[in-house]
Design a protein that fits this description.
The protein has a seven-stranded mixed β-sheet with strand order 3-2-1-4-5-7-6, with helices on both faces. The protein has nine helices and seven strands; from the N terminus they run H-H-H-E-H-E-H-E-H-E-H-E-H-H-E-E. Helix 4 links the parallel strand 1 and strand 2. Helix content is about 45%, strand content about 15%. Helix 2 packs antiparallel against helix 5. The chain has a single domain, classed as 3-Layer(aba) Sandwich (Rossmann fold), CATH 3.40.50.150. It has about 230 residues and is α/β, with parallel strands linked by helices. The termini are far apart. The structure holds S-adenosylmethionine. The site of S-adenosylmethionine has 18 residues, from helix 4 and strand 2.
């Protein structure tokens, strides 16, 4: 993309933010406190956070699973959308990220762990435990799964997301799917990374779901997400 197009995307995002997003001190504090505490600035943008959270409202989701908490920025968006209707369960591998996220959530008026529970550990260790709990009836299955952690495991998380879902109508959202496929050389000119997993091709061959990829521009430049609905 040209520099002009990137700048246009940023300008439109700023305009959208001004007119369609309400001021939210909890979210502003989450950004500021995360920066102060040394967390990387790789959270979703406000516009993306609102969009993803609106999907949970559209689908009347009651149980959201998030993989990759960071400072809880997207988590706050989901918690706001789920208020009075359900719960967010988020997984984070770095203790400092989890601690800052809890601070940010509480400062935003979100009750932890009642409204948002953050599970500490590597997602591939935690997801099988969640599967067991669902199977034993100790936990409800999820109706919305937001995947935003290490890119190498996007496919593994997707596969778990479908298994942990309530089934028909559940939604799986894979953030950064476009940059992952470009940077790993699956699409485009970059040299293909050895062992790169083609998430889009895997999802396309998966009879359990129907899916699409949406490319995006905005304050976070060019990227895109994969959205799948369980059949
Ligand atoms: C892009 S950030 C998440 C941003 C967050 N969803 C937001 O928009 O506010 C990715 C997070 O995933 C965490 N992460 C990376 N690998 C992980 C793993 N194997 N299991 C759980 N979390 C992981 C990182 O520590 C980081 O905090």
């Amino acid at each position: 993309m040209s520099r002009d197009q990137v700048n246009q995307g940023k300008a439109v995002d700023a305009y959208v933010k001004k007119h369609l997003l309400h001021e939210d001190r909890g979210l502003e504090n989450a950004y500021a406190n995360s920066t102060k505490q040394g967390l990387p600035m790789i959270a979703v943008s406000e516009v993306q956070g609102k969009f993803a959270s609106m999907l949970t409202t559209i689908g009347s989701a009651r149980n959201v699973l998030e993989i990759g908490t960071l400072g809880g920025f997207s988590t706050i968006w989901f918690a706001r959308a789920m208020k009075g209707r359900g719960k967010v369960t988020s997984i984070e591998v770095i203790p400092h990220h989890r601690d800052v996220a809890i601070e940010n959530l509480r400062a935003a008026g979100v009750q932890v762990p009642e409204e948002v529970d953050i599970l500490l550990g590597a997602a591939l260790n935690i997801l099988p435990k969640l599967a067991e709990e669902i199977e034993e009836g100790k936990r409800e299955p999820f109706d919305f799964v937001f995947i935003d952690a290490d890119w190498d495991n996007q496919w593994n998380y997707f596969d778990f997301g479908v298994k942990l879902s309530k089934g028909k109508g559940a939604v799986i959202y894979v953030d950064n799917a476009v940059r992952n496929m470009l940077e790993s050389g699956i699409v485009g000119d970059a040299e293909r990374v050895e062992k790169a997993v083609d998430v889009v091709a895997n999802v396309g061959a998966d009879d359990r779901v129907d899916a699409v990829v949406m490319q995006t521009v905005g304050s976070k430049n060019y990227d895109g997400f994969l959205l799948a609905v369980v059949k």
